[in-house]
Design brief:
With about 230 residues, this protein is α/β, with parallel strands linked by helices. The chain has two domains: about 130 residues, Rossmann fold, CATH 3.40.50.2300; about 80 residues, Winged helix-like DNA-binding domain superfamily/Winged helix DNA-binding domain (Arc Repressor Mutant, subunit A, Orthogonal Bundle), CATH 1.10.10. The chain has eleven helices and six strands. Strand 4, helix 3 and strand 5 form a beta-alpha-beta unit. Helix 3 packs parallel to helix 4. The longest helix is centred in the last third of the chain and has 15 residues.
Length: about 230
């Protein structure tokens, strides 16, 4: 990350935006830089050019679309992940595409229309810090993949969950969050008010030391990196 200001204590997250639509690229660049905490250092219109450019400019985060000419985003995710954190940003919430992207090295997956400008900026900063931002549909796809994995392979997510210190009710709420449920849907399913659900979510975030649903899901599933936002 590059230093910002004279003190050198603040940093800008350096981002490469990859989308085959130049209007989308321009809009994303303007949106991200408006926060004052993100610097867009390059743009690319296909996966092949993205890999070339990433190796040259070394971004902190690559915002990567899925459907592009020459080399699509899923195929480009693997080489890009060796250079930077890769955050998929696309219109498709197809579960197979989500899982393929994550398997190929993407640290997160966002679906257009499911986040605000502020949430997008936060997701980029969290990705740079080691978190795993996920839109609800993407979180559900990851959850299904973890639950269908053969026993004895990968992370023992049940053991991870048992050590997180959540109450029984908080664990129920967290499990539904990981399935992609909104606060309103959780409230209806557990026969609670939305305010009560929100209080549970806030306590879950505090106990897991996270600031977003995606980061909470990564901790819950045992897929979070050791370095979390706010830690050295």
């Amino acid at each position: 990350m590059s230093a910002r200001g004279g003190s050198g204590t603040a940093t800008l997250v350096r981002v490469l935006v990859v989308d085959d639509n130049p209007v989308v690229r321009s809009g994303l660049a303007s949106l991200l830089e408006a926060s004052g905490e993100i610097e867009v250092i390059g743009e690319a219109g296909d996966g092949r050019r993205a890999v070339e450019l990433a190796e040259q400019v070394r971004p902190d985060v690559v915002l990567l679309d899925v459907r592009m000419p020459l080399v699509d985003g899923v195929e480009a995710a693997e080489p890009l992940s060796r250079v930077a954190r890769v955050l998929m940003l696309t219109y498709t919430d197809d579960p197979d595409t989500v899982r393929s992207s994550i398997r190929r090295g993407a640290c997160g997956y966002l679906v257009h229309g499911t986040f605000t400008a502020e949430e997008l900026g936060r997701a980029v900063r969290e990705a740079a810090a080691g978190a795993h931002p996920l839109s609800p549909a993407a979180a559900s796809a990851v959850m299904d993949a973890v639950r269908s994995a053969p026993s004895g392979t990968g992370v023992d997510s049940a053991a991870v969950r048992a050590g997180l210190g959540l109450s029984v009710r908080e664990a129920e709420v967290m499990d539904l969050i990981a399935r992609g449920r909104s606060n309103g849907e959780i409230a209806r399913e557990l026969f609670l008010s939305e305010k009560t659900v929100k209080n549970h979510v806030n306590r879950i975030y505090a106990k897991l030391s996270v600031e977003s649903r995606g980061a909470a899901i990564a901790r819950w599933l045992g897929t979070a990196s050791e370095d979390r936002p706010g830690e050295p």
